[in-house]
Design a protein that fits this description.
- The chain has 69 residues and is mostly helical.
- It has a domain of 31 residues.
- It contains two helices and no strands.
- 0% of the residues are buried.
């Protein structure tokens, strides 16, 4: 179980590193341009939901781990 968790954490860290590297080099969405505000809002809303889901999932995992003790 611990080996699977370590492998998954490594895979996620590598994916985040690969996907986030272009963001450091340039601005991906320019909300100030014409017809770009909608795309920026949708991407921001998606990011908020992803973070909220991650927090919910982490809390669920924590609760399951503490219920077994």
């Amino acid at each position: 179980m611990r080996r699977r968790f370590t492998a998954l954490a490594s895979l996620v860290a590598a994916a985040v590193g690969v996907l986030a590297s272009p963001a450091g080099a340039q601005q991906l969405v320019d909300a100030g341009g014409e017809h770009q505000g909608g795309l920026a809002f949708v991407l921001f809303a998606l990011m908020v939901f992803i973070i909220g889901f991650a927090l919910f999932f982490m809390d669920r995992v924590r609760r399951r781990a503490t219920d077994g003790e």
